[in-house]
Amino acid sequence: MATANHRALYSGSFDPITLGHLDVLKRARGVFDEIVVAIGRNPDKEPLFAIAERVEMTRRLVAELLEAEPEGASVRVESYQGLTVDFARQVGACALLRGIRHGSDLASECQLAITNRQVAGVETVFIVAGELHAYTSSSLIKQVAALGGDLERLASMVPPIVLEALRAKRLDPHNPLGRLARNAPEE
Question: Is the distance from CB of 52 to CB of 25 less than 8 angstroms?
């Protein structure tokens, strides 16, 4: 008797990927047979990192995770365009994977999960992030970096390769982070 392949799609902009994202991925590896980390574009936000940069960083971090913890679901990283539910169907996912940090996440994620189930017939599985990551968000990280905050203070929220990439973006006058850093008022 063949067993079903329980493949989840873990989608997001991952701009940048955080230790909270990786925590959710680690926890989900014990639930599914395979996880596709799907990096997409959020049309409501100007990206800090190009999709290719986000894919590369995520692939490096996933490789490190799989090497450190070989037991559990396999993981692959892909980029996509369009609707998440369409990509979920394309890769044969049985569920969307979403991380929950706190109560306000739950409210908005439940609304989206119900919509995805009604419109596309795709279920959503929630994984609660560890308490160390309950208030970590990519938006917060970008804001701290853009407003001249000490990047070393973000070390508990993002992997070292993300810190390195944030430093480089601050120096790039063509990147939104570099433009903001250049235009920041002096104290």
Answer: no
